[in-house]
Amino acid sequence: MGLFNISLLLTCLMVLAIFHSCEAQNSPQDYLAVHNDARAQVGVGPMSWDANLASRAQNYANSRAGDCNLIHSGAGENLAKGGGDFTGRAAVQLWVSERPSYNYATNQCVGGKKCRHYTQVVWRNSVRLGCGRARCNNGWWFISCNYDPDAGLASRAQNYANSRAGNCNLIHSGAWENLAKTGGNFTGRAAVQLWVSKKLNYNYGTHQCASGQMCGHYTQVVGATQSD
């Protein structure tokens, strides 16, 4: 074999090695490995790869290539961006690095620090994962991971419940929210049963609460349309 052929072969092998090294940091197995290692450390079961979530994450990453801004498309999503050879594995490691900022006892971030990327990574109920990676026009990499079920709504509800512990007043934090309180051993199940008991006050024919009666909690539970 001539020197030219040997040189060409070595060059091809080097290119393949570099390509493999890069791809090895961005495969589904890489995303899953870092996630599941972090979950195992706190006694949470592993997630599996979901092609539909991955497609959604990739499409959103592609859509942000123009500005590379970390703007969420919805709940149940972790985002990251970085220059150079910023990989999917590096993005997940960045989210996991927030662990010291999370207080398990209070389910709160410590001292105003960020920790919600980490809580999404280890959220017990999240069992499916899909991620995508796109190169931005400025040369940086945009990485998105989607989770199902997501931790967003549950985490938000717990945080708001914690914030109302001082006065226990039933003040809504926003729309599409049911609240309840009472003494004794008041459980989550009992709260939902209380809301469902308002079914008798709802008129499906008019999509209205009976005169002077409350039914909004029930309509929220079942997704019925209410006009008042």
From TrEMBL:
Per the UniProt record, one Pfam family is: CAP
* InterPro entries attached to this UniProt entry: Allrgn_V5/Tpx1_CS, CAP_dom, CAP_sf, CRISP-related
- For whether the record's keyword set contains Transport, the answer is no
Q: Which UniProt keywords apply?
A: Disulfide bond, Pathogenesis-related protein, Plant defense, Signal
Instruction: State the Gene Ontology BP annotations.
Output: defense response to other organism
Q: Name one GO cellular component term.
A: extracellular space
The leader peptide range reads 1-24
Give the superkingdom in one word. Answer: Eukaryota
Q: Where is the SCP domain?
A: 26-162
The record ties this protein, via PANTHER family, to: CYSTEINE-RICH SECRETORY PROTEIN-RELATED
Q: Which family does it belong to?
A: Belongs to the CRISP family.
Q: What is this protein called?
A: SCP domain-containing protein
The species this protein was found in: Solanum lycopersicum (Tomato)
